[in-house]
Amino acid sequence: MRLEKLELQGFKSFADKTVFEFPKNLTAIVGPNGSGKSNISDAVRWVLGEQSMKTLRGKYANDVIFKGSDRLSKLGMASVALYLDNQDHKLPVDYREVVISRKIFTDGESEYLLNNNKVRLTDILMMLAQAKFGQKSYAVIGQGMITHFLSSSPQERKEFFDEATGVKEFQIKRDQAINKLIRTEDNLGKAKVLLTEIEPHLQSLSRQVRRLEKRDKIESELKLLQEEYYGFLWASLQTEHQQLKSQLVTKEGVAQDLETALQKQQALSDVISQEASRGERYQSLQKQFNELLERKSQVLKEQAVLKGKLEVEHERQGELSLVWLQRKEDEIMNDLRSHEDEMLVLEKQLSQDKNSLGRLEKITQSLQAEFRQEEYNILKLKEQIEQQANVMTVPEIKKEVRDIFEEQEAFLRELLQTKSLDRFKEVQAKAKKITVRFAMFMDHLNSEEKETIEAFRIEMKHKEQALQKLVAERENNQQAVNELRVSVETTHHKINLLHTQINRNQDELAQIQSNLDTANQQDEKETKKAQVLQYNSALQELHAQIAHFDLQLQGTAKEIEQFNQEEEDKKNRLLSIQSEMRSLQRKLTSMRQEANTLEVNMARVETRSEDLRAEIERAVSPDLHSKIYQFKPTQPITDHGVLEKKIFSLQRQLEAIGSVDEQTIQEHQETKERFDFLKTQSEDLTNSIVSLEKIIDELDATIHRQFQKNFKIINDGFEKYFKILFNGGRAQLEMLTDTEADHDLPSDSPQDLSGESLHNEKERELIGKKKKKQKVISGIEVQAQPPTKKVTNVAALSGGEKSMVSIALLCAIIAHNPSPFVFLDEIEAALDEENSEKLSAIIKILATKTQIIIITHNRITMRAADILYGVTMGREGKSHILSVELKEAEEMVTD
Predict the structure, then answer these.
(1) Which domains does the chain have, with CATH numbers?
(2) N- to C-terminal Cα distance for the chain?
(3) I need a surface site. Which of 52, 276, 437, 460 has the fewest CB within 10 A?
(4) How far is CA 98 from the centre of its chain?
(5) What pLDDT digit, counting tens, does each position of 472-484 carry?
């Protein structure tokens, strides 16, 4: 590996982009004082990661940026780039050419680049350490470092020898391991603190989780028992309800059949009543009979008129004899007697109908009296019930009793006003509702109250049945009264007609008697014969009509007689049907009572079901409701009490446990995971500490071993080059050791990622523990004795002698462990011409092992160089360079 070129821009006096190429092994940079020669060595040291501004001859980080001049403005950035040939891959990167760059801006922000890729300073330092050089190494020997080396402390010299012996790479690794160990122990301490804080909380959470697990177990067991217990109760109630419902459906079906049969009987009764209605059919026949009588009466009137005309004509014709008039008088008297007989019959029938009507009215009055008596009894019974209700202690029950009997009183008033069976059925339906409500009310009474109320209820029931019977009898009697009234009216009509006929016959008889008186006075007979014949013909026709009417009247009379017989038969049938209807009504009433009882029981089961549902909603978690309502018991529960006690016991256990936050499990899990993580981390950190301590011990051993080995070689080389420069004498290096590890810290202390020493108590304590009081190298002492002198203390040497001692040591280091390139800044300034010749010869020899760039004023050194770079300071305040290859220059001068 070699340095190909150095590129500067904006760095100190090099304002413009300036490139130094180094094709040869020995290059000299020359120029007057103040031209900016030393800025080149500062640039190399800076790009290699130097952080000390004192070493770079500045105060602030941005002091390396070109500050401007009278003619030029200041710049905002400075950059330096090293171009290294890495074909031998001495640098551990996969580049044949490696470009290390560093830039800084006016705000102090700095960045490092490796082949134009941003990297960390640590990456640069590690790469350079693996290549055996860096900003702290002997690769850059600046002004004053030669004399400073001997005047520095042994501990400071130790740091220089770390680079020279090649242990810097291992020290960086050790420093990194120590830093990692410190961070690891710090993290372990934090983890232990967190574990100490978390563990009590975790234990508390664990107890809560155990309580919650116990609660969950009890709740699971409780849910199973509740499902079985409440599920069986619910299923039993539903089964009982279904059985009652089935029985009720059966009873209602039977009641419906009975009601249908009753309706059929009622319909049959209605049909018979319509067919045998004395108010309609009888009136129709009677009307027909009366019409016939009326028509017959009109014909008789016409006959009488014709007879009168005929008699007139007879009188006129002399044909009207006394014999005929007497015969006519006899006929009229016969008719009069017949009508009087018929009137006697009708008056007798009228008397009978009036007697029957009076009898029925007495029965009706008796029924009305019974109605009033029953009403009085019911009112008395109501007063007794109200008195019983007042005895009850619960106001709600009193109110319920009053409400029920107020409804029943209204029902009874409506019943008393009922005048038909159809209306009675509607009232009966209301009674059914009152009965159901009364039965539900009875559930809230004690046994004594129930017995009293039940006795009143039975008595009330008997009264209701008596009222039902009275209503039916009253309706039948009312129908009979109506029929008799129609019959009486019809008979009155007949009698009136007979009176009219008798009056007519009496008038006709008086006329005949008058005619008898005037018969002897008529003498016109012949002149009106034709007219008489005509009257006789019309009279015969009227006789025929009268005979026809008589036949119709006889038929109508027979039909009326037959009708009356049929009415009697149908009345008997109606009585039979009514008896059958009463029997059906009793059965229907009984069936409805049984249905009412079933409905009451169903209402009780439904109430128990609702109470059970409310208890389930209150006592059981919602997710169990559907299971309970759908529970199918496989076998009956023999002992509900035992199951109930188990449920009660589990509920008490849950109450004893109390409420536990459901988030506790998640919190416990998260805390447990964090605790386990921290515990694992603690174990891993402990293992890492052990591993790091082992690595540090191994690195310390490697550093010590390699330092001892290379120090001996450098010590031998130091004596060799000392004798060359001093023409004899003696010189050696001596390692200072100390049993206290703390004394080794200044020269062997770790560096952090920024390259600064980590001098703090924690590191001192750590390193002190790790080194376990072994012997450590605390510093390097230099002893030198020039020829003819007895002094060995370098402090007593002259300035030139000190420079020669330092140069001898530097040459020994370069000869043993050459850096890829070395910058020497005026190291021969204190030497005379003779010693400069000696140094020039040594440098030529060393240039065969490494690439040397020397900044010098010495002409002897200049002649030894392959290439010369001249640096001058322009008027604008910036440095300029000029390069010359000396061999070509010499050939040009020779020519």
Answers:
(1) 1-139+823-895 (3.40.50.300), 322-521 (1.20.58.920)
(2) 36
(3) 52
(4) 64
(5) 666 676 676 677 6
